[in-house]
Structures are given as structure tokens and as C-alpha cells.
């Protein structure tokens, strides 16, 4: 990365650094993520997040580690409804596996060698009996024995540790008031902890890169209705025991309660956690409690975001180049589409043409990661509504490469003589733009 690229990257991450400072994130790390080759990188990134002022609660799983211990002990594993039936002998293996995994994580968080990403981090890790558990009991004739459910999360004790700048590490063993230990699901622990703390985010780190559609394409964003539909499709297809279903179920449970955002992130790519949380494009799947984009008039604070949207199109000659100074002067002409996370997804401008009842639609752009989601169409409807409110009767647009899209939106091809006289005199013959109009 060149110096200029690094500076630009640092500037682009700064809004996220400011937004995340002082917020509480619950991170669920699966047992597979602990065994992944990128484990040290994940730990380094978590330590970096804490150094940036994020309150971290880290919940770890240990399913493959428990499986290994059971295999060495010659014990069989039985699951019912994704819950491990845990007898006394199996519970001993659970304790050993969870303890060993916890020790591995604490050790990694304690590293501070010179010339390493953890140098100077000084992460203080705190654990404790923050979970009150109860037995699952007997279901459909199956006694789950030492398999447990969460009865209560001691949110006050966790908050006290976070306020003292500690990282809280939580394992998947909970205790009953009588002192019995129970084996818990790491997803349940993370979800219930995030709800109890009113956490800003719940982050689920697993082998899955996020949620994939039928074509194995990563879905960047999901609303709660879409999560419900996907869970129903997976259940119908017999995928109720899949990792994807479990992740969706946890995300849905969290968002249905007090958690606004759940991020599903893969563990294998270096830096994936930082890309998801500190860059506009992200790296996994974001599920939101209230996933509703906002279409509003642009403000001077949107100039940088609009420039980022239109710069690639200007380089290709699709849009006429605008300077920052010109954009600042004309910002009142623009409308923007804003992602719930704050990212600008699209922009467009309306320029009334003097001495006529017509206006020009210009500078229509959509974020490349959000193409084919109807953003430009919804933006156009708002522009048209604004034009009607200003008594405009006709909307003109000049384009070199997107004629087909404007036809789909109800525009018809026009000629230079159809333009108001003022606009005719400004026509750029070198660009040879095609002219389209739409009656409002």
C-alpha cells in the first residue's frame, strides 16, 4: 500500500473509529475459529478494537475441542435439536476442553512481544461466573442431563468490568444456584449476553463467511423479514441443523430484542473483522433490527461521500467531472440514499431550468456494492416528487451509457430541439449525449 493509499484508508476508517468508541460489542468466536490458522490475527484485531475504545465481551465456543476430548476418552456424542446430551463423564471432557480453549485465548491476548501487533496492547482479561444456568431437562423422552440453558446474565457485573477497561471473556459453562455446572451453546451465551447488555453489536465469527444465497453468493445485508424467509427455506430443505440456520436464529433472536446490528463474519481471511466493522464495504453479512434506508436532501457533510460515489463514473466518462468546490455550491440540488450504517448508497441531482417548467436530472450514481437493488429507482421517485412539488412538468436527462435504464423508468428519447433554449446552448457536442425526457 502506497503512502497516499494508506492515508486515504485511514481517513475512511476514522468515522467508524469515532462511532464505535465507547460502544459495547459482543463477539462470539466458534471453536472452529479458535483452531483456524488465522486465530492469532483475529486476537490481534480484537485487541486493536479495544485499544480504539470499544468495550469487548468475547464469548468462545469449544465444540470441536470437546469432540476431540470425547473421542480420546472413547465416549460417543449424541445431539438432539442441536443440543449435546451431556452425561457426567462427558461433562468432564467439556470442562477440560473449555478450560484449555479459554487458556489458549487468554495466552494469545497476553502476548506483547516487540515487533508484533500485540506489542504494547496490555489487554486485561477478566472472567467470572457471569451466567446462571439451569438444566435443559427431559424433552420428548430424552434426558439432556448436564446440558443447560441460560437462566440469567449478570449484566451489572459485566458492565462494571467493561467500565474498568477490561476485556470480558466468557466460556460456555454456566452454574446453577446449587453449584452444578452445565454445558451451554456459545451462540446462546453470546446472544443472551448481547441482549442483557443492550450491546451495540453482536458479531458472530465462524467458518462461514456470512450468509450465502442459493447461488453461493454472499449476501451483504438482510432485514428481519428476509431472515425469517431464509430460515423457513432452510427448514423446509432439511437444513435446520446447519451452521447457517443456527447463525440466522441467533441473529434473529438478538435483533428481535435490544440489539440493533448483528454481523456474521468468516474467520479465515486475515483482517476480515476489521474490514467488516471499519470499512464501508464490509466483509460479511449485516443483519439489522430496523433495516430501512433513508432518502433525504443532501447536506454539506455528504460532499465527501458523493465524490466517492461519482468519481469512478467520472473516470469512465459516464458523468461529467465535478470539483469539490462546485459540488459544495450545488449541494442543495442533490438527494442521497443513506444506508442504516451511515454509508451513502446513491445520489442524484435536480436542476430546474430557468424560464421553463422543466428540470434536468443529473449525477445519478449508486454504490457499486449495492447495484440491482432498486436504489436508483427509489431515488428517482423522490426526485420526481420533488420536481412536481416545484411545479415542474418535464424532466430531462442527458446520458452516454445508461439509455436502457432511463427507458425502463418511463423516459422517452428526445432531440436537442426539445430542450429548453437555455439548455440547448449548453449542449456538449463532444460528449454526444443522448437526450431523454419524461412528463411528470
Give an overview in words.
- With 440 residues, the protein is α/β, with parallel strands linked by helices.
- It folds into two domains: 276 residues, Carbamate kinase (3-Layer(aba) Sandwich), CATH 3.40.1160; 146 residues, Aminopeptidase (3-Layer(aba) Sandwich), CATH 3.40.630.30.
- The chain has an eight-stranded mixed β-sheet with strand order 5-10-2-1-13-17-18-16, sandwiched between helices. A seven-stranded mixed β-sheet has the order 19-20-21-22-23-25-24.
- Helix 4 crosses helix 5 and helix 8 runs antiparallel to helix 9.
Q: Could you give a short account of the major beta sheet? A: 8 strands, mixed
- Count of DSSP-assigned helices: 15
How would you sum up the global shape? elongated
How far is the N terminus from the C terminus?
49 Å
Strand order across the biggest sheet?
5-10-2-1-13-17-18-16
User: What is the CATH class name of the largest domain?
Assistant: Alpha Beta
Oligomer: single chain
Strand fraction equals 15-25%
Q: Report the radius of gyration as a whole number of Å.
A: 27 Å
- Helix-and-strand structural type: alpha/beta
Predict the CATH topology of the largest domain: Carbamate kinase
CATH superfamily of the largest domain: Acetylglutamate kinase-like
Average pLDDT value?
Answer: 88
Give helix % range.
25-40%
Give the strand tally.
Answer: 25
CATH-level-2 architecture of the largest domain: 3-Layer(aba) Sandwich
Amino acid at each position: 500500500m502506497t503512502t497516499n493509499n494508506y492515508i486515504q484508508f485511514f481517513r475512511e476508517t476514522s468515522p467508524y473509529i469515532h462511532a464505535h468508541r465507547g460502544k459495547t460489542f459482543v463477539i462470539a468466536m466458534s471453536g472452529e475459529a479458535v483452531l483456524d490458522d488465522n486465530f492469532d490475527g483475529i486476537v490481534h484485531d480484537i485487541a486493536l478494537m479495544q485499544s480504539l475504545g470499544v468495550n469487548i465481551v468475547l464469548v468462545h465456543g469449544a465444540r470441536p475441542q470437546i469432540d476431540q476430548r470425547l473421542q480420546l476418552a472413547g465416549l460417543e456424542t449424541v445431539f438432539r435439536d442441536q443440543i449435546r446430551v451431556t452425561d457426567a463423564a462427558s461433562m468432564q471432557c467439556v470442562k477440560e476442553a473449555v478450560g484449555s480453549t479459554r487458556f489458549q485465548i487468554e495466552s494469545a491476548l497476553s502476548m506483547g512481544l516487540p515487533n508484533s501487533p500485540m506489542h504494547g496492547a496490555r489487554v486485561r482479561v477478566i472472567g467470572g461466573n457471569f451466567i446462571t444456568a439451569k438444566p435443559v431437562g427431559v424433552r420428548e423422552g430424552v434426558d439432556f442431563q448436564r446440558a443447560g440453558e441460560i437462566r440469567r446474565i449478570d449484566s451489572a457485573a459485566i458492565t462494571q468490568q467493561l467500565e474498568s477497561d477490561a476485556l470480558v471473556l466468557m466460556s460456555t459453562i454456566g452454574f446453577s444456584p446449587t453449584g452444578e455446572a452445565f454445558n451451554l451453546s456459545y451462540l446462546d451465551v453470546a446472544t443472551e449476553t448481547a441482549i442483557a447488555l443492550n450491546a451495540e453489536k453482536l458479531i458472530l465469527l465462524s467458518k462461514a463467511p456470512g450468509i450465502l444465497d442459493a447461488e453461493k453468493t454472499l449476501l451483504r445485508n438482510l432485514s428481519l423479514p428476509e431472515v425469517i424467509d431464509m430460515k423457513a427455506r432452510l427448514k423446509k430443505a432439511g437444513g435446520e441443523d446447519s451452521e447457517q440456520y443456527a447463525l440466522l436464529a441467533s441473529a434473529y433472536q438478538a435483533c428481535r430484542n435490544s440489539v440493533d446490528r448483528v454481523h456474521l463474519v468468516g474467520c479465515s481471511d486475515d483482517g476480515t473483522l476489521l474490514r467488516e466493522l471499519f470499512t464501508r464495504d464490509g466483509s460479511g453479512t449485516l443483519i439489522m433490527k430496523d433495516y430501512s434506508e433513508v432518502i433525504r436532501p443532501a447536506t454539506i457533510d455528504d460532499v465527501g461521500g458523493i465524490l466517492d460515489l461519482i468519481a469512478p463514473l467520472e473516470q469512465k466518462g459516464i458523468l461529467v467531472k465535478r470539483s469539490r468546490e462546485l459540488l459544495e455550491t450545488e449541494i442543495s440540488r442533490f438527494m442521497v440514499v443513506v444506508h442504516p450504517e451511515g454509508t451513502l448508497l446513491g445520489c442524484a441531482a435536480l436542476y430546474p431550468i430557468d424560464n421553463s417548467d422543466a428540470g434536468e436530472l443529473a449525477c445519478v450514481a449508486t454504490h457499486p456494492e449495492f447495484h440491482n437493488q432498486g436504489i436508483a429507482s427509489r431515488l428517482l421517485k423522490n426526485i420526481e416528487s420533488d420536481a412536481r412539488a416545484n411545479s415542474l412538468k418535464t424532466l430531462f436527462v442527458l446520458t452516454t451509457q445508461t439509455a436502457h435504464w432511463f427507458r425502463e423508468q418511463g423516459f422517452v428519447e428526445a432531440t436537442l430541439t426539445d430542450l429548453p433554449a437555455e439548455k440547448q446552448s449548453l449542449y456538449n457536442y463532444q460528449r454526444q449525449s443522448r437526450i431523454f425526457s419524461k412528463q411528470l
